[in-house]
Amino acid sequence: MDSDSARPVSPGIVAAVAGLSIAHPNTHVGDPQRNLSISILTMPAKILLRIFSMLVPPSIALQYYEAPSTTRFTGKRQCPCSSAHKDIISVSQVCSLLRATVLGHPPFWSPIWITNHLNSEQIALNFMQRALDNPLEIIIIDSTQHMWEYGCPRITKIQQNQHSEHESTDSEFQVSSSYLHNPMQNFWSLHKATGKFIKILHIASPISSDADEFFKQPMPFLESFALDRPLSSQMWNHDEGYNLPTPIFGGITPQLQKLMFQKVKFSWDDPIFKNLSYLSVSCVAVRDSEVSLKRLLEILSRCPDLVTFGLAVRVESPQSSLSLLPVISLPYLRNLILTQLENAVQCKTILSCLQTQVLQMLDIFHFDMPAQDIRQIIPIQFKSEDLELQKIYINWDLSTIEVQSQMASNKITSVHLRTKDNLHCKRNMCSFRYQCCNFPWDIDRTSALSKLLAPVLRQICSPEAKIIKIENNHPPMLEACHFPFTELFRHCHKMETLIIDGMFDEQCHQLKVSLHAEVQAAEDQDTVALPSLQELSLSNVDLGIGLNGIYSFLLHRHIRGCPLKVVSLIECNNIQSDILEKAVTNLEVMNYDEELDSELPASWHHFFGVFPDPEAY
User: Fold this and answer.
1) Does residue 51 form part of some domain?
2) Is residue 256 part of a domain?
3) Per-residue DSSP letters for 211-236?
4) Which of 173, 234, 575, 580 is surrounded by the fewest CB atoms within 10 Å?
5) Domain limits at 103?
6) H helices of 290-399, where?
7) Is 16 among the domain residues?
8) For residue 200, what are the contacts with CB-CB under 8 A and spacing of at least 6?
9) Same domain, 28 and 47
């Protein structure tokens, strides 16, 4: 299994490469600069190759954590129209010794980018020759279709016309007359001329019927294959799609492990669907791309080592009884993405036919999501107590429920509740997010979202959670959304830390009512309310709404002889220090925003301390 992340280039490597550039044969004998050059140049070739290997672009192979997406490239892979090999090329131009070392190592030259930019075809040919018999990693990108997705500047018609009048000497801005030439055709001509073996192939380019000949060629060394045909907005839902020949690659792909199809037509009976560890199919915009549930389960049964499965196509519901459908065991399945399904029943049917114990990420999206019971969507066997579940995304209509966790074991020790787009996932944390898009938000959707939060919390979050964080940075459209504080307190009864960052008036009122109810119940039973809670942090909260409930809770804990150890008030409004002062006299740490000094009594200042960064959890 390949690595899911590229190795970072350390400052030491950068310094070493910088040192290589100062080597010069004419340096005088006593020059310390010459001594440094000798110490670098006399390194064993094995060490030099190890250093230079970190300058080679990361592999373009499909990664197991990837969901179906066209924007696959990040970091050094972000902009394909720039030189992806400029570092290793620079090293090869330092001196003859290093050039021989680098050119004599074919794996350095096996990753090849083919675009419709100047000299792309010639550079690719040079790399193929330097790679010798090493299997190639090839990416084919039509930059006119994909540049907007990768953060690259478009080259306009005006720039093309200007180039036809005079050549630019700066290769960074050169535009060749073949700019509009299909890079897939460039690749096919190179492949026929060289006959090189391919290990990894990613195609993100328009495909014509001329490519049929290529897709009929055997690929005995191919391990990862991704085909993403660009689709303009005008063609959405009105596209016939490129029809791959059957069998793909002549049915000869014995090493293939990872496969992704996007916006293409193919036969679901193709023998390519077997022995896969990564399978992602997203063809919802292509006509006649649906698959029967029976055939889908047959394909999954032929991929027992499947780690990631993404499906974004129309699935035909079975005519027979659901009890007759087989249950497919996928013991290694960690990532499951189901998109554009017809309804919740179909979603639950597919999930009910899958059996796994190592699932870490579950992503569900469709437009007809029930809001009463999460069990109508996710079968009971997908509870986090039974799985190593780390991420769940449940999307419907204009809203999203997200659960994300990082666990040392399959027992969640903390839970993170937030309503923010950007998640920062830390170790030993489960985050739970609900959001909605910036569209008209009516009371029915708000009520539906409110009703679904509590069942999701009960089924997915572990009662062992010790750290609870609620974060709300959304616009007022969710102001009427009820957060299940009462269910949270009852379910996560071992909670030690409660962090609340931002709440609307209605949610502050809910917190007040829930805390007051906990205090009342504890008083009736002569016990302590939320006895495990030791730390309370409030940020961006209007205490004028929920102050009485918070005050009664703090005072109750103080009277019972077990006050909170830490209370943090950061950027809170309407702080009324006179009624809070009695409740915090025994605190070990009292945090507050320095800008609020005037609102806090002087007797509180000795409580000031550094509260642990919420992101540290």
Assistant:
1) yes
2) yes
3) GHHHHTS--TT--EEEEE----GGGT
4) 234
5) 62-158+175-289
6) 293-301, 344-352
7) yes
8) 59, 60, 61, 136, 137, 138, 222, 223, 224, 225
9) yes
123-127 long-range contacts (CB < 8 A, ≥24 apart) are 124/186, 124/187, 124/190, 125/190, 125/193, 125/194, 127/85
249 in the same domain as 181: yes
φ, ψ of residue 557 in degrees (nearest 5): -65, -35
**Do residue 187 and residue 138 come from a single domain?**
yes
Q: What is the mean pLDDT of residues 539-559?
A: 75
The C-alpha atoms of residue 347 and residue 536 are separated, in whole angstroms, by: 39
| Other beta carbons less than 10 A from residue 458's beta carbon | 16
Share of the chain above pLDDT 70, in %: 51
Q: How many domains does the chain have?
A: 2
- In this structure, the answer to whether residues 227 and 117 fall within a common structural domain is yes
- Whether 131 and 37 map to the same domain: the answer is no
Which tokens belong to 11?
């400052």
- Parallel, antiparallel or unpaired: strands 429-436 and 399-406: antiparallel
Q: Is residue 21 located within the same domain as residue 111?
A: no
Across 195-203, average pLDDT: 85
Q: Is the model more confident about 66 or about 172?
A: 66
User: Whole-structure pTM over 0.85, yes or no?
Assistant: no
Distance, in Å, from the CA atom of 280 to the CA atom of 446, rounded to the nearest integer, reads 33
Distance (Å, whole) CA 107 – CA 223? 16
In a domain, residue 188? The reply is yes
> How many C-beta neighbours within 10 Å does residue 389 have?
25
Q: What average pLDDT does range 42-56 have in this prediction? A: 76
Note whether 199 and 136 are within 8 A (CB). Answer: yes
Could you read off the pLDDT of 125-157 as tens digits, one per residue?
Answer: 888 888 888 888 888 887 665 443 333 333 333
